[in-house]
């Protein structure tokens, strides 16, 4: 009795379960052991039910045993109704604890979801289909995805390092299923393949909008043209375009010297987020050769044609280019020489330019291809008729690109340097013919290009002033980079 009173006062059990003295002791003041043991079991069950699911099943078994043992004795008939209410509350409390434990156990044993996004990287020997299967697609799914992709991209040309993004979504029967794949082909284009049905895949090619940006650069030539330009953050693509334009009246192999200077204004195209996409046009350039300036301006004429003009409105384009090849070394000039193969003196009726195999060869002027194929000791040979009296010839080619009878434009690639025919190494043999006789290309007086006049010349002069002012504004603060100065930027635009 004293124990019951102490517990009742200490823990206020009567607020949880309305216990009475007769439930714990008999009329003879003996402790009802089965009740005390049952109460202890109940406490243990409640604790284990809250802690977790590891004891949930045990708690259910013990609870059943407890209820089976909870039988009223004859002397407790007076409290039968109260006992029923207590038992009902006890059932509810036990069930609550067990339910909580089951929920925790379910969370504990739930399998983690596979990632819904994977970035794949192509390695040597990989195929797109194989990578997709490794990512989780079935064989038929990978096949259909690749077939859809081929509408916009040749998967056989995929290169090592290419990234492929694969996305998944929850499947109808649990797990994940393929939803989409995407490949960024370049800063502008991205191709994607989406699931359009259970066995239907659809490909789509998207392009980002590009925005032009204008850059101004200047460089002082110290060692090589390309090296000096790179130190001044002038892209090699821009220098190559300058060489092509100026090659009508500047010989970059013999005319350029240390101390000469370059100025250039050019376009670059970028995406909305500032990622570089491609280079645009050279708008203005100036070569200072041995102290003399050669400025040129890109100008669109009234009929839509575009050309480069000198400040007086005369086109820089001449009838023939001085050198129909970039980055080559003059290895043999026009005139008598000891033939390197035959071993005796023989008239050399052209100019030889030594260059690596595969170097592009340009048409020296507009014209019609009247020969394209093998020609004895010339090897692979191309001859272009420019007008009724002027022709040019190109020999020892590795590969011919020009087509017999086709028209070519000045500066168009017609073939590639090689060493076919009677040749000791890769080079271009270049000839200029007047009335079918070879002449020294350096001795020919070429006519000047187009001359702007009238309103068109006035419009050009206005354009010239705006372009020059734009260059001055953008180049403010720039200095000519020297050979021992490093580039201030790692990103050349």
Please, could you describe this protein's structure?
Strand 8 and strand 9 (292-300) form a beta hairpin. Residues 10-14, 50-56, 65-74 and 483-491 have low confidence and may be disordered. The chain is built from ten helices and 22 strands. It has 493 residues and is an alpha+beta fold. Helix 3 (33-51) packs parallel to helix 5 and helix 6 crosses helix 7. The protein has helices at 2-11, 21-24, 33-51, 56-69, 80-109, 128-135, 139-149, 225-231, 236-246, 454-474, and strands at residues 117-121, 163-170, 176-184, 189-197, 200-207, 211-220, 261-270, 276-289, 292-300, 306-309, 329-332, 335-338, 345-348, 351-354, 360-362, 367-374, 380-385, 390-400, 407-408, 413-417, 427-434, 437-439. The longest helix is centred in the first third of the chain and has 30 residues, at 80-109. The radius of gyration is 44 Å and the shape is globular. The strands form four sheets. Strands 11, 14, 15, 16, 17, 18, 19, 20, 21 and 22 form a ten-stranded antiparallel β-sheet that branches. It has four domains: 2-109, no CATH class; 117-207, Nuclear Transport Factor 2, Chain: A; 211-318, Roll (Nuclear Transport Factor 2, Chain: A); 329-443, Glucose Permease (Domain IIA), CATH 2.70.70.
